[in-house]
Description:
Layout: H1 2-14, H2 25-53, H3 58-81, E1 94-96, H4 101-110, H5 114-135, H6 140-147, H7 152-174, H8 186-205, H9 208-212, H10 214-228, H11 235-239, H12 258-286, H13 292-311, E2 317-319, H14 321-330, H15 336-348, H16 352-359, H17 363-385, H18 393-411, H19 414-417, H20 422-428, H21 431-447, E3 476-478, E4 488-490
Antiparallel strand pairs: 1-2, 3-4
Helix pairs in contact: 2-3, 2-4, 2-15, 3-13, 3-15, 3-16, 4-5, 4-20, 5-12, 5-13, 7-17, 7-18, 7-21, 8-10, 8-17, 10-17, 12-13, 12-14, 12-20, 18-21
Amino acid sequence: xxxxxxxxxxxxxxxxxxxxxxxxxxxxxxxxxxxxxxxxxxxxxxxxxxxxxxxxxxxxxxxxxxxxxxxxxxxxxxxxxxxxxxxxxxxxxxxxxxxxxxxxxxxxxxxxxxxxxxxxxxxxxxxxxxxxxxxxxxxxxxxxxxxxxxxxxxxxxxxxxxxxxxxxxxxxxxxxxxxxxxxxxxxxxxxxxxxxxxxxxxxxxxxxxxxxxxxxxxxxxxxxxxxxxxxxxxxxxxxxxxxxxxxxxxxxxxxxxxxxxxxxxxxxxxxxxxxxxxxxxxxxxxxxxxxxxxxxxxxxxxxxxxxxxxxxxxxxxxxxxxxxxxxxxxxxxxxxxxxxxxxxxxxxxxxxxxxxxxxxxxxxxxxxxxxxxxxxxxxxxxxxxxxxxxxxxxxxxxxxxxxxxxxxxxxxxxxxxxxxxxxxxxxxxxxxxxxxxxxxxxxxxxxxxxxxxxxxxxxxxxxxxxxxxxxxxxxxxxxxxxxxxxxxxxxxxx
Length: 494
């Protein structure tokens, strides 16, 4: 692996492969596999967290992981290869967005957990995907008007809220997982702390390639340690089939309920900001002009992939920011490398035994890795807010009040569990939903929609991405504002 990493790094520094160049098959395979390594931990952690929260069986969790990887592969190919006016035709990896984790858990728990909860989630995901796909076909003026709802003060607040809300999810796993017999056992915190320390050391002293897969390596080392100490069980691996095909509506027909659909629509509004930023960022890296039509094609791919995800038992999809950083680091600009990565993911999605190994990661180990990833999401939001004039009272109020709303479900849960209609609770019992909605509404009240401006590449400033991106760390992305001046924003690894 070290030799492969060295070869990739050295070759990548010299490479200027154009975005539309088809590389020789060996290079396509090597570069594509590197994208999978940088992406893998972020790809599988969402179904693991959601599945554990909904109390799914190990077999069901394995199926979720396979379905996620399989659909990730298809979605990435659609985005990078392009089908007609769908897909940006840029090296963008598609993955399940972290933005949806907390809302999906809220929807699922409101529906009683288990596979019945998945059916409600999938109904909302399919509807939101179709709505996103349709939105991206709007006339340019209407498209720009909606996107002006997300200036830096809103995106920064939403991303910060996302990280803050998700951190407790990681900490609960670090304690052993809510409801588990050994919840709070010090050994779980020992595994979490050891995994976290290993990841931080790699990120501090590791070379770029090692840093980019530090989360994945942390999960591997932590799980191996737990296995040697008798705390990681792989009995379900032997029970799993070698080959398994993801089938539509595996858990049953989706249920379409009004409030979960509204909640998922809000999630997709936020993910549109993420994809927009990543599209401009990767366009700048590969030297390809990004205009309104390019962004619209990227969002159509998001919508199509999300709707497909609901059909194939997966979740909402967004462009992954850490892989945008990997494109810059390797300087390999060919979009067909991402197509190759998509093929690898489809193959992995057909191997239940590989998913069973991932599902056997102990809660403590998973919690240590997840806490690092979610903390980096919160940091990305803070860095975006650093670009906002918070000395301006209006902006300070937007951020402060939105954060207060986001903390309400965690601090006063009784309001949602005992004093609110169950359907309304499933919509509002989410810090992400309350915080994001508050930020959008307060920005409209205090700042309005801002000036009209073209949504084209020349409106976006040059993008500078970190030299050593890490798995789970956000890359610098550009989300153009509607004043025509552009805004720099960091987007979460979604």
